[in-house]
Amino acid sequence: MSQENVETVRALLAPFEQGDCAPLFRDDDLNASITAASEPFFTPDFVCVFVREDVGRSEHPGLGGLREAWLDWLLPWDNYWPSVEEVIDAGNGRVVVLTRDRARLRDSESEVSFAGAPVWHVRDGRVARIEFYWSRDEGLKAVGLEE
Fold first, then answer.
1. CATH number reported for the structural domain that contains residue 99 in this entry
2. 18 or 12: whose pLDDT is higher?
3. 20 to 30 A Cα–Cα from 70, which one of 1, 12, 14, 28?
4. What is the number of domains present in the chain?
5. pTM of the prediction?
6. Side-chain half-sphere of 103: how many Cα atoms within 13 Å?
7. Is residue 147 included in any domain, yes or no?
8. Contact (Cβ atoms closer than 8 angstroms) between residue 26 and residue 73
9. Which residue range is the domain that position 19 belongs to?
10. 11 lies in a domain?
11. What is the predicted pLDDT for the residue at 56?
């Protein structure tokens, strides 16, 4: 089942690797389309958790909560370009995604980058939880894979 979990996560990430993902969350029609297409791949009790130094841990239930959390995260950014470096089976239904995202601040040409390690929890072939760690070390530590 572990390879299937990795493939499920990779498939769900694909639309977000096509360039600037901010419009996918900000545009109501685009987001509704993505949500409808991806809903069968999430459990009814799905929750996303953002683990950030500035706000600590915040839980957001459902795909609507996922969008709200991302809209909050995207507030300071004009553009946001996610990139997946590696997808790792961490056992026990957990999949770690090593990311390197870039973002451009509003009204600026300045860009920053983030090396993260979101942890996806897959149950019976569907995503039950995503923990977004914006620190790669924290995400790897959460599954016992410290660098």
1. 3.10.450.50
2. 12
3. 1
4. 1
5. 0.92
6. 17
7. no
8. no
9. 2-142
10. yes
11. 78
